[in-house]
Amino acid sequence: MPRLLTLGTLHWTGEAFGREKPLLLLAFLALGGPQTRREVARKFWPSASNPMNSLSVAAGQLKRAAPDLLQVTETQVGAQVACDALDFQEALRRNDLQAAQVLYRGPFLHGLALAELGEELEEWVMQTRESLAASYRTLLLQEAQRQLASHPSEAGQWAAQAYALLGAAPPSAEEFRALYALLSAADHPDRQKLAREAAELGLTLQAPPRPATPLLGREAELERLAQLGPSETLWLRGAAGMGKTALLRTLALRGGTLLSGRGVRPYQTLLALAPEADHPQNEADWLAHLSHHQAPLLVDDWEAADPESRRVLLGLAQSRAGGPLVFASRERPPISLSELTLRPLAKEHLSDAAWERSGGLPALLRANTESELAESYANLLTPLTPRARQLLACLVVQPRPNRQATSRALSLSADDMAELLETLGRACLLQDTRPTAPTAARAWLGSQPTLETEVLTLLAPHLGAAEALPLYLRAHELTGSNDFAGFQEALEKHARTLLETGRDSEAEALLGKHALSEENRLLRARSLDALGRYPEALSALESLESSPLTEVFSGLAPKVGRFRVETRLRSRVQHWLSLPVQGTG
User: Percentage of the chain with pLDDT > 90?
Assistant: First the structure.
């Protein structure tokens, strides 16, 4: 069946027919449908003395080539013809990229002498050419975005084809950004050429970096975001480090426009959407400008955005104009919007090592060393108040957090304690009173010796001796001091327990390093005696300040032999301490 070919050079595949104007008329009618004869004549022969006669001549030429091509009445003229441009439009509607590639042999009516056409007809040719090419470019970009995650190199090739497409108008600002993101992700050489062209047009491009946080376990959330349709808005809420930015950057790589909240100047957050020298100056103009933005608009760091940009963006959400709109924030939305809340990752999505390191907090997954882990965890705490960080540190140092003791140590009322625990829970840093990521929390606190010492010494006096002593010993490691309030009392109770249960060596090692009080030094003398180290026991006792007990021992020394001194020493120490002695030596 004969066909009219318009993509590339204008050509009729039937009986040889080389007259350009009648074929152009056929293309005009094929794509535009039936038209009034007077309007067609005026557009095609605006300078003719008798345009209607010129139309009749052209129609006659076409009828002689193919009698059934035209349908002519007294007032209208139409065409019934197979045309590649019509097939191409249908392929675009079906998103059939393979068929579109076969059909698009070049720009619509390429090589046509436009200067010989009237102004209206020339405008129709150019508009049709650019419209068909723009739709094709959109289809190519969609394919590039689809290939990006699994085949970035192929995605770059599709993007390069979209950028170099013949017949298309220069890319829009959002297309420039989408193309640059795709070419950059694929490290395609055309990205430099595109960047230079954008700079000449006054556009600033920034290739979205690859997600800084792995998207393990976020497939459902990413799918939800990717399926947003035009005019739909979603509020992506999550604590610091939950992966909001990583999700938005992934969407930006697929063709969305990523904005980061900045609040120094009015509308500063929005300036990336318009050339610096010619951006809208007020809220109404910005709303009008953004209502034509069809690519997904992704707003990160909502809290940091300037107030003027916030009003515009919320107005855009309420107007339901433009493309999909996503806000990322730690807080709830200020107006009623659909929400998607990010929680810590489920354990089944992570290896045992990754779970131990991160507790499911995405921001901690890339940390490979303890210092990196401590730094990543510290970044999660940036939004918290010093009081909240102090409470968190108090809970970290306790193997089994004691809520009552913690409240007393920090002088917190019940309401204050509940409020701070809720704050830490919303930040996904606690589950009840236990840290979500204990390994990371300990690494962080280990990098904060002043804070750690503070909470250790505040908390320990409010705990039982068994729970308090490890805290005092850690404070000693940090400072070298044994002179903390309550330390010697806790040490005495623990040392007595060790001696009563025959763990004399443990008691001596502990007391030898930390005993300051008279009671603890006497206990050390007893532990040395129990270990058979009698001279050291006597020496330890004699080092004490003068007391009735030490005077008795000192008086015995010149009068009796060494064995009797040691024997009496053990007997007197046993009696003074009221503790059982293990063995007789």
Answer: 44
Residue 414 has pLDDT above 80, yes or no: yes
From the list 408, 376, 379, 384, the residue with the least C-alpha distance to 394 is: 408
Beta 325-329 vs 233-237: how paired, if at all? parallel
Q: To which residue do tokens 């955005």 refer? A: 305
CA dihedral over 266, 268, 271, 277, signed as positive or negative: positive
> In the chain, what are the domain boundaries?
4-130, 229-341, 347-479, 487-577
**What are 258's two structure tokens?**
């990523």
Residue 118: exposure state from Cβ atoms within 10 A (0-12, 13-18, ≥19) = middle
Q: What is the DSSP letter of 114?
A: G
Residues 473-514 pLDDT 10s = 999 999 998 889 999 999 999 999 999 999 999 999 999 999
Residues in the chain, overall count: 585
Q: How far apart are CA 35 and CA 53, in angstroms?
A: 16
SS3 for 528? helix
What pLDDT sits at residue 569? 52
> Tokens 């699994």, residue?
150
CA–CA distances in Å: residue 410 to residues 413, 416, 462: 9, 10, 10
The residues near 381 (Cβ < 8 Å, ≥ 6 apart) are 389, 392, 429, 444
Architecture of domain 487-577: Alpha Horseshoe (1.25)
The CA distances from residue 22 to 18, 29, 155, 389, in Å, are 9, 11, 42, 81
DSSP letter string, 23-41: HHHHHHHHHH--EEHHHHH
| End-to-end alpha carbon distance in the chain | 118
| Predicted local distance difference test score (pLDDT) of residue 547 | 56
* Residue 394 C-alpha from the chain's centroid: 29
What residues contact residue 451 under an 8 Å CB cut-off, 6+ apart?
A: 389, 390, 393, 445
Residue 578 has pLDDT above 60, yes or no: no
Q: Does domain 229-341 have CATH number 3.40.50?
A: yes
